[in-house]
Structures are given as C-alpha cells and as structure tokens.
Design a protein that fits this description.
Elements (H helix, E strand, L loop, with lengths): L2 H4 L6 H15 L11 H8 L3 H13 L3 E4 L5 E4 L5 H12 L5 H18 L6 H13 L7 H21 L3 H20 L8 H20 L2 H29 L1
Antiparallel strand pairs: 1-2
Helix pairs in contact: 2-4, 5-9, 6-9, 6-11, 7-8, 7-10, 8-9, 8-10, 10-11
Length: 248
C-alpha cells in the first residue's frame, strides 16, 4: 500500500479509492466515456484486494459516476451525472424546513438575474424558439384546471431553458434546482387549482420582453427586466400562497 494511503485516517479502503477516482476526474479533467484503470491495475497501484476494488467500483456505480461492463473488453467507464439526483436530494431535505415564498425568492432574485445575464449572446435559435413556445403557451387564459397546471409548468420551463444554456454550470444547477423546488411547491400544494391568471399574465409580459432583449443582446435591459420580473413574481407568489393557505 502506498505511503499516501497509509497516512490516511482510518477510513474504509474502498472509500479512499472512491475519493481517488473523484480526484482524478477533477485534476485530469476526465470526460464521460473515459475508462478507468482495470481492476488489476487498481489492485497493483494501491496494493489492495480485489474485493476492496470491487466495493469501490460498486459505490461509484451507485453514485452514478461510472458504469461497468463485464467480460472481455469490459471494465469501468465514466458517465455524466445529471442534475436530478442532487436536486431531488436537496429538495427532499428542504421539504422538512417549510420554505417560505420570501425565502425562496430571496435566492431566485439573485440567481435568476445572473443566469439571465450570463446567457446573453449564448442562446441558440432552438433555445430562443423554446422560450417563445413556452411563453406562447401561457399567453391565453386557461379554460381548464389541466391547462392551468401546464401553464405553470411552462412558465418554469422558460427559466430552465436559461439555466441549461448558462455557460456557468454552478449558476445553471442552482437555477434549475430553484425552478424544480418551485415546481414541486406548485404541484404539491395544487396551486394551479386557484384561478390567478394575473400572475401568469405578468410572467408572460416579462418573458416576451426578455426574449426581445435577448434578440438585441442587450445585457443591461436583460438584467433590469429579470430583476423586476423576480420582484413582481415574488409579490404574486406570496399572494397565491396566502390563498392556498386559506383553502387548506
């Protein structure tokens, strides 16, 4: 066993191998599809047993960082982890913290503005088309509860397009996380059952204005519009949450 591993605190050897693989991903800038060293190479490199290596690989597979293929030509290769597992775990944690609309929008007012500015000049035609599609979907007052529910989802999908397009993956992750947390609150509390189209209409107006600003690649206007949009959205959401509380 290498001296580096000997000097580690008393942790399971398989956990140390997991940490080492994660270190390699970051330090070597490895990409999805890149192969890990074979079991034999890992055993020789770290002077550990086959069982320890397999335990480490299983842990990495459970975390979604690798996939393994048995047989000749098989082995372990890296896979890209999506945002959903981490986002879902964080949302599950926050369900028991009873997040208020004001607390949620305290973060949205920071994150959404920075995301909006970060994508100026980066949006593709397909992404701009998606922004128009989601906004058009909300442009008329719904006639059924299902239409109302789909409109609330479309409003958030507009912001997910921006989050996914952000060149800053940290901003993008937190933007999508906040949108999914808001979506959960809307769905779990059945907020879409309350007829409150004034909220949707406000979102639609800001979304169309933002699309126009993106077409002109006007960062100053995008920052101003998204800041105002989040402030007004907070006001409407606080009102909507109050109506939900009365009905519950």
């Amino acid at each position: 066993m290498t001296s580096e591993f000997k000097n580690k605190t008393k942790r399971k050897l398989s956990d140390l191998i997991v940490d080492e693989v994660k270190r390699l991903i970051v330090s070597e800038e490895l990409k999805p599809g890149d192969r890990l060293p074979s079991e034999k190479d890992l055993i020789e490199q770290y002077q550990i047993s086959k069982g320890t290596v397999r335990e480490a690989l299983k842990a990495l597979e459970v975390e979604g960082l690798i996939k393994t293929k048995p047989g000749p030509g098989g082995g372990a290769s890296l896979t890209e982890v999506g945002t959903e597992p981490a986002s879902k775990a964080l949302r599950n944690y926050l369900y028991f913290r009873h997040i208020s609309p004001e607390q949620l929008y305290q973060m949205r007012k920071l994150v959404e503005v920075e995301i909006a500015v970060s994508v100026v000049g980066h949006l593709t035609e397909d992404e701009l088309s998606l922004l128009r599609k989601y906004t058009n979907q909300c442009s008329k007052k719904p006639s059924t509860e299902e239409e109302q529910r789909l409109q609330k989802i479309a409003e958030l999908e507009f912001h997910n397009v921006l989050a996914d397009a952000s060149p800053n993956p940290v901003l993008g992750f937190f933007g999508r996380f906040l949108n999914e947390l808001l979506r959960d609150l809307v769905v779990l509390k059945k907020a879409y059952l309350i007829d409150y189209y004034a909220f949707t209409k406000s979102n639609v107006d800001y979304h169309y204005a933002l699309i126009s600003a993106y077409d002109k690649q006007d960062k100053t206007q995008v920052r101003t519009l998204m800041g105002e949009h989040m402030c007004e959205a907070e006001m409407h959401f606080v009102t909507l949450d109050g109506e939900i509380s009365k009905k519950m």
